[in-house]
Amino acid sequence: MKFDRETNVQRLLLVIALSAITSLLLIAVFIFKEGVPFILQVGLRNFLLSSDWRPHAGKFGIYPMIVASLWVTFGAMLIGAPLGVAGAIFLNEFVPRTVMRVIKPTIELLAGIPSVVFGFIGVVVLAPLIRAHLGGPGLSVLAAAIVLGIMVLPTIISISTDAIAAVPQTYREGALALGATRWQAVHMVVVKAARSGIVASIILAMGRAVGETMAVIMVAGNAAKVPHSPLDSAQTLTATIALEMASATGMHRQALFATGVVLFVVIMVLNSIATVAVRRRIGKNSKR
Amino acid sequence: MRIPPKYTQMAAVALLGLATAVTLVVLLFIIVFVLDKGLPVVSWRFLFTNPQNMGRAGGIFPTLVGTVLLPLLAIAIAMPLGVGTAVYLTEYTRETQVTRVIRFGTDCLAGIPSIIFGLFGFIFFVVMLGFGWSLLSGGLTLAIMILPTIIRTSEEAIRAVPTSYREVSFSLGATRWETVIKVVLPNALPGIVTGVMLGIGRSISETAAVIFTAGSSLRLPHSAFDSVRTMAVHFYILAREGLSNENAYGTAAVLIVAVLMINLTAYWLMHRFIERRTK
Questions:
Q1: In whole angstroms, what is the distance from residue B163 CA to residue B156 CA?
Q2: Number of domains comprising chain B
Q3: Which domain covers residue B22, as residue numbers?
Q4: CB 3.0–4.6 Å: which of A54, A123, B14, B160 could bond A59 by disulfide?
Q5: Are A14 and B264 inside 8 Å of each other by CB?
Q6: Strand, coil or helix: A111
């Protein structure tokens, strides 16, 4: 009898354990089911490369949104990656352990600030500054990039710090014994050894930046045309979905799901690259 | 001319320190700014009266109720699934093709942006299953969203329970399940609670996935099929439609205090848990 209960429990747990992958498949199936027929009907080329987004006239080209998402994401990385990686190196290598033990959780705690709050700060503090000093409407690609760049800092710092901390102490000692200064040891040895983890943190942050919605809606200005300068307003892929979903029907709604398909594919590719990078590092370290 | 390494080191450390300082100052500025403008608005009246005129005046009571109910429902669904998955991965199987698929699914789910969860929740729970914009649709959507967090933290917590505990339990004649229930889970509890707190924190600050599944009704919900509005959604609507800056700051302040307190509790629990384990 006891044996029977054990096997039942095991079966039940297996079913439960499959819930995550089942959810993932359900999400993929439903987004694709709504979006892919639309893409086939309009044509992938037309959908991705046409700049004409006028849902009411039946024109669905998401090229402006793709450009906007790319600009905003790369801008965010230009700001977030150097700051985040520099912070991670500094906290790991040049700060006493006790200080680091306070600062790292503080930064991770700040990751919990809701994205709408970041967006709001962008609107009331950042956008007026940009408007006054650089011109343009203020709500712009630049504002969105800065806000997102700050938002991804906790992700980059947290994962990069772990990667740098995982570099064996002997590497540093070896470099120092050869007469290197602390900084030479850090940038010639430690950073190189932790490279794949640092890259993974940046790619994961890119995924977050591409997928961020509410903050971007608030600060990017939402104009569905190709931005020509960082000071222009723009509308990202995510913003398009969130702004128009409430009122969309028929073809328009399918177009938004098709936009979701594009987003889904991009995120999956980015995350797979990051996962492979992290795995390689773990594999390399555990062999030693 | 070659710059002596001593000076490049000084320059590098100064730059790195500056970057760290900028990061901390900016993040702290955001919190201080919102609390400075928002806390004066917050009072018992603000928390416990109904909004008037779409939130232009009055309090935030219904959104407070929504912010409590929705994450609780999400946790009630996600916790059994997450902890069950973690127990299966750690106690009931070795590394196989199946566990690799489960882990892959968890990793992928963790990276999906919230707007995609919103789209899915809308088409699946709201439209197809006919739950409408409701507490139930929102709770189910959020549950899927926080599932990876709960699985990961629970798995780590369970793995941290020493093998000798299990061996003692087995040697007393307990079955695997009895060992899990009476020995492993009680010892892993603080770690599991950490994951739960982090999940609640994420649910509270979520907007994109909630607005398309739970809706934004300002009425108090009477059943799981009623729409609710959380504080994050309320703040978004107030700020975006320019209804009331004052109430927006007040809502944001309550939101930030709630999220920080929950995350702080989570870290405190995790810290205590790790300390006890390493002794």
A1: 14
A2: 2
A3: 5-40
A4: A54
A5: no
A6: coil
Interface check for A165 against chain B (CB to CB < 8 A): the answer is no
**Do residue B92 and residue B172 come from a single domain?**
yes
- Same domain? For B36 and B164 the reply is no
Dist. CA A169–CA B211, nearest whole Å? 48
Domain ranges of chain A: 63-287
* C-alpha distances out from residue A110 to A157, A213, B24, B244, Å: 12, 18, 9, 26
User: Which tokens go with A242?
Assistant: 């969130």
Q: Which of A6, A13, A191 to mutate to test the interface with B (most CBs of B within 10 A)?
A: A13
Q: Answer whether B175's CB lies under 8 Å from A2's CB.
A: yes
Residue A167 is classified by DSSP as S
The answer on B129 and B89 residing in a single domain is: yes
Residues whose CB falls within 8 Å of the CB of residue B79, separated by 6 or more in sequence, listed in order: B150, B196
Q: Are residues B139 and B60 in the same domain?
A: yes
Taking only the tens place, the pLDDT of each residue in B116-144 is 999 999 999 999 999 999 999 999 999 99
Name chain B contacts of A113, Cβ cutoff 8 Å.
27, 30-31, 205, 256, 259
Domain A63-287 adopts which CATH fold?
MetI-like fold (1.10.3720)
The one-letter amino acid code at B137 reads S
Indicate whether B151 and B270 sit together in one domain: yes
Binary contact (B19, A86; C-beta < 8 A)? yes
Question: B195 CB contacts (<8 Å, ≥6 apart)?
Answer: B82, B149, B150, B152, B153, B154, B157
**pTM flag (> 0.80):** yes
Looking at the fold, whether B34 and B159 belong to one and the same domain comes out as no
Task: Give strand pairing partners of B58.
Answer: B51
Length of chain B: 279
d(CA A111, CA A127): 22
Element (H, E) at A43: none
Could you tell me how many residues make up chain A?
288
CA distance A262 to A36: 10
Q: For residues A99-109, give the mean pLDDT.
A: 83
Q: How far is CA B26 from the centre of its chain?
A: 23
Identify the band that residue A282 occupies on the pLDDT scale cut at 50, 70 and 90: low
Whether B219 and B209 map to the same domain: the answer is yes
Closest CB from B15, B108, B124 relative to A30: B124
Whether B217 and B172 map to the same domain: the answer is yes
CB contact A128 to B (< 8 Å): no
